[in-house]
Amino acid sequence: MSIGALILIILVYLFLCFVLYQLGKGKKSGGVAFGLVSLFFTPVVGFIWFFFAQNKMVTMETRYRCPECKFEFTQQHKHCPHCKDKGREVILIEVQRNMV
Ligand SMILES: [Zn+2]
Predict the structure, then answer these.
(1) Residues 46 and 75 in one domain
(2) What is the whole-number distance in angstroms between the Cα of residue 95 and the centre of ligand 1?
């Protein structure tokens, strides 16, 4: 086998590891884990793992955040209950949170 062919094989190998690193970002285990497995156990193993791996579960959840005490509530209130106890009426701000 010539040196050129060997370099080409190594480049393709590294490219496949990089592809799995990118694909793995959408999985629960993460891109780095997929990249390393592909590098040490060949990208074939990486691809097999990829097809059986769990997807990252990302759901958006609405929270209500108090700008005064920074407390977040899962339920909507007209005013922050914490601050209301201290005699202040603070209107809660609606925020979106990533739940993984
Ligand atoms: Zn508050």
Answers:
(1) no
(2) 15
